[in-house]
Amino acid sequence: MSIEAIIVLGVIAVVLGALMFTRIAADAILVSALTLLLVVPVPKGGGITLGVLTPKEAIGGFASTGLATVAVLFVVVTGLKETGGIDWISARLLGRPRSLRTGMVRMAAPVAGMSAFLNNTPVVALMIPAVGDWCKRTGLAPSKLMIPLSYAAILGGTCSLIGTSTNLVVAGMVVDQQTGLEPLGMFDVTWIGVPCVLVGLLFLLLVGPKLLPNRGSSASVMADPREYTLEMIVPEGSALAGKTVEDAGLRNLPGCFLVEVEREGGVMAAVGPESVLRAGDRLVFAGVVEAIKDLQTLRGLTPATDQVFKLDSPRYRRRLFEAVVSRTSPAAGRTIREGRFRNTYDAVVIAVAREGERLKGKLGAIELKPGDTLLLEADPGFAEKHRNSRDFLLVSALEDSTPRRHARAPMAVVLLAGMVALAALGVMEMLTAALLAAGLMVLSRCCTITEARRSIDWSVLIVIGAALGLGEALRVSGASSDIAHAILSVVGQHPWMVLLAIYAITSLATEVITNNAAVVLVFPIAVKAVEKIEIATSTDVSLMPFVIAIMIGGSASFATPLGYQTNLMVYGPGGYRFADFLRVGVPMNILIGVTTVVLTPLVFPF
User: Domain coordinates of the chain in residue numbers?
Assistant: First the structure.
């Protein structure tokens, strides 16, 4: 083994240790490792050279189309989010499950199905915010569902040739390297992929809830002593009109509840889950700020005050602010209506909180007192204008509080469907289709340019790019080939044992480097192994079982967040640590590996 290979393996061991046993951010660890591989002295040719990698090799991962596609998809997802399209998808696919296992089924089944025919990266990018919002409404911890989301997408990708780029890479090598095999068909891998999906999802349902961590529960986020009073109206033509309170999703709201319904001058104080909503109903809610903010984005309800429609700036450019009324404020001692907030501050009062007291009466008739906290809808510049004003003790903006553009939701969903269709039919590459969809999201005002910029999660992109650089280091140093050849020399010449070794090497390499790099490195080793078996046994051995094993082993990466980009994508939103993936992913890797190695020779004989 060369000195470069020893250095690379040592650096990767330190990276894995730091990810497992420290709380240092993953992007900082990986970029530090990449930097080290650029500057470490390496003995070569009787002298010393600087770095295992050249700068071009180190940053090559940041120029990958996969990373660029993930970046652009953040913008596409933002367009869906800002129009309420994600809320619609979430409600249709996910519903309101009564248990964690029911929730897993409702999420995993459609995700696996979509991933069989779509690249699983956009599927996960689309579903992360939907599952996050869903967790808020149901009180389930995101950490119980984000790993299953990634795993379901990975498993679904093994079911067809276009389900993941790994399958396409292997199919290309079957032809390019003149293996003598017929080109792979769309559903050749399905014979093994579908059983793997069934086994994997069954494991997640039966054992997953016990192994997955319980942290980051949405219910804990709602712990806030301030209770706002908010009025909303069911407008004419609302999709909620004619639905019961429960069917409308207004029962058991996390951190918020429906206090009363005012209808035709009368008040329904005891609002049961079977109460039917009507157009024109005025709904009074009490809850904490996060819950009240979410209600503002709910499709089918509008603020009770018509003042929000009289502000100069369009609603999609506004956001919510919290402001505390001071003793010197001219609004103190007056009702909200008399305070003339729209004329004085170019803002509208949406809700009021007063030391945990539940305020009664219509919002406009509430008399304000010093110390009251107001929830205001205003132009983004409101905080800067009034931060030092004597009228308010404190002014702070609420993140992600822009009112949803529900009228543009159909446009956002159509753009998503068009992107998927163009990529699935081969009309455009995934990156090209995503760029087109993102551009049209901005042009059609499904999201603004500022929102598009803000949506990109740079830490995720840095982790993916740096991980690709580490994979390149394994390749150029020869470390991966050394390990693979050493393992093959141990297992001997029996086809089934060699198949097991090939799968294990592919799976292990995928966990440490990237899936595409892993299959590229292992494929020629599998070809050579088959040739050795044929020479030693004087019998013909088919390469097909090994091809299928490499495809599944290169895709089915569960044990580390580094192994597959969808694992990296759910790492932050799920609040995970490195060890969480090991706890759930190692048994999954073993289970899928056994399923693949046992079934593949039965379907594709040696």
Answer: 65-217+408-457, 306-401
Mark residue 373 as left, alpha or beta (left: phi above 0; alpha: psi -120 to 50; beta: remaining).
Answer: beta
Residue 536 and residue 314: Cα distance in Å, rounded? Answer: 76
| CA 223 – CA 335 distance, rounded (Å) | 29
* Cα distance between residue 19 and residue 570, in whole Å: 15
135-186: pLDDT as tens digits: 776 777 888 889 999 999 999 988 887 677 777 778 777 776 666 777 777 7
Residue 508 has a pLDDT of 83
Q: Are 531 and 562 within 8 A, CB to CB?
A: no
- What is the DSSP code (8-state) at residue 326? P
DSSP state of 213: -
Task: Classify residue 559 by its DSSP letter.
Answer: S
| CA nearest neighbour of 559 among 211, 216, 217, 214 | 211
Question: Which amino acid is located at 474 in the chain?
Answer: L
Question: Residue 593: what residue type?
Answer: G
- 3-state SS of 77-92 is HHHHHHCCHHHHHHHH
Number of other CB atoms surrounding residue 18 within 10 Å: 18
- Give Cα 598 to chain centroid, integer Å: 33
Q: What separation, in Å, do the N-terminal and C-terminal C-alpha atoms of the chain show? A: 32
**Furthest-apart CA pair in the chain: how many Å?**
98
Instruction: Give percent of the chain with pLDDT exceeding 90.
Output: 10
The encoded tokens of residue 523 equal 């494929």
- In this prediction the pTM is 0.65
pLDDT band at 511 (very low <50, low <70, confident <90, very high): confident
Stated as kind and residue range, the H or E segment containing 385 is helix 382-386
Which residue, chain included where needed, has tokens 């080793």? 525
Condensed to tens digits (0 to 9), the pLDDT of residues 334-369 reads: 888 888 888 888 888 888 888 767 677 677 888 888
Can you tell me whether residue 314 is helix, strand or coil?
coil
321 vs 286: which has the higher pLDDT: 321
Q: Which two tokens mark 469?
A: 């650089």
Closest CA to 5 of 467, 481, 468: 481
pLDDT score recorded for residue 46: 66
User: Quick one: angle between helices 85-94 and 409-424, nearest 10?
Assistant: 70
Cα separation values, 411 from 87, 302, 436, 444, Å: 14, 21, 14, 8
- The CATH number of the structural domain formed by 306-401 is 3.30.70.1450
